[in-house]
Amino acid sequence: MKFFKLNEKEYQVPESWQEMSLKLYVNVAKLEEKRTEYFLGELYLLKIIEAICDAEDGELDELTLEVVNDISSSLVFLQEHKDWPNVKTLEIEGVTYVFPSDLNKLTMGEYISMKTFQENTKSQSEAIPYILAIILRPGKLVQDGETGEEKWVQDKFTANNIDYRKDIFLNQPVMDLMGPIGFFLGGK
Amino acid sequence: MFSKSSKEDNLALGQVSIDKRWGWLAMVDRLSNGDITKHDEVYQRNYIECLNLLSYWYERDNYFEQQNEIRKNSYRHG
Lengths: 188, 78
Description:
The complex is a heterodimer of chains A (188) and B (78).
Chain A: E1 2-6, E2 9-13, H1 22-33, H2 41-52, H3 65-74, E3 89-92, E4 95-98, H4 108-120, H5 124-135, E5 137-143, E6 150-154, H6 162-170, H7 174-177
Antiparallel strand pairs in A: 1-2, 3-4, 4-5, 5-6
Helix pairs in contact in A: 1-2, 1-5, 4-5, 5-6
Chain B: H1 6-12, H2 23-31, H3 39-44, H4 47-77
């Protein structure tokens, strides 16, 4: 992680995908969707730095060219091809969150909820935390009474804690979260 | 200034459609055969199975509609 100060405020710049939270990833992905609106490469770079530092629009306008160049050298990882690991479970604050074992087995309720968020958010990227909050839910390790085989079983889907889970996931490393949801980001 | 609304235009052309905002509700309503007490059961069913069934019904409805059109036209000209 790289650090820099501007107007007495310290900012953090991730230098690898491992250091990138979901929130910062969504910030950058939202910008990427609007890339064609930025005619100047330098302005786009500044906006990327704002996004990756979770700064407000225009908050980093006073950065010197030297600092911008220094930071941009740390952002090379954004261009690297990334293979999201396919994790099955995730432990957050003592709760085990379980990914669905087969996305083809989602219910109509889960599917409609995801599509509704995709339709009602301004961009595909903004829907990512909501999609995760729908498909990644607390679960338990259950033993099959006959075979003795253990498998993770998710709690039944309800719309109750979606916002709560979304907020928790925003602070998690994006590497742990993105693997299983690429399937849903193909279109509205 | 005096142009008709798109809804009126569609009616004039004999095309009627349900507002997009009812899309998912309309699907669930159809799958539950209009029975609100069955909506929760629909939400628990596999989405691929539901979407396949809706696609089949859509094609079947179109097929019957075309058949009816052909029948009506043959009466008119017969």
